[in-house]
Amino acid sequence: MKRNTSIIPTPFAGHLPLRVALVEDEQKIRESWSRLIDSFPDFKCVCACESGEEALRSVAASGPDVILMDVLLPGISGIECTMRLKELLPRTQIIILTALDDDELIFRALEAGADGYLLKRTKPADMRAALLEVLHGGAPMTSAIARRVVQSFRRTSPNRQEALRLSPREEELLEFLAKGYSNKEIADQLQLSVETVRSYLKHIYEKMHVRSRTEAAVRYLNAKSP
User: Fold this and answer.
1) What is the Cα gyration radius of the chain?
2) What is the pLDDT of residues 68-97, one digit of tens each?
């Protein structure tokens, strides 16, 4: 049977099946996810790692389009691994998968560069939809997690003037952040080191009273809108 490729984003259509890397320490879950990914039309699990250390050694060579990342890993955490892999593979999409819906983990993962955040109990059909959504430029989240993000915005929302109380350099950096650039891409554009970009982001988060790059970008764009 001929596959329907009309839903596949144009930038990825040249190398079907789309490649997914998996980072999960529990063997049974890792094998189950791998089989699930391979069962999806136009997707293939090309790398399955049991730790963050193994992922940093192996994932880049497999050239994944998407990485599914567990948070609670032995050794390097999934959040730390996400941050490092984003520096190595800035255009690769990373979706966090976890059994926890803890607010702090959610925002730390988004700050580290995660492009989506789903619970492990997500249904197979929703998982495939999330893979397609993130490749289309979306940020897939379960409804429960999306609600937590919205609630956090409401709790800590600054006024418009406060959100714009930034230096010209900080505003310039935020413009790139709002366009979805990674820390490394921002560093390249502004001719700064990645560490300097991180330092700027830390100060921006403090000024805007936010905890993640996603939250900072949303508030900045809201403050800039008429």
Assistant:
1) 18
2) 999 888 888 998 999 899 888 988 999 998
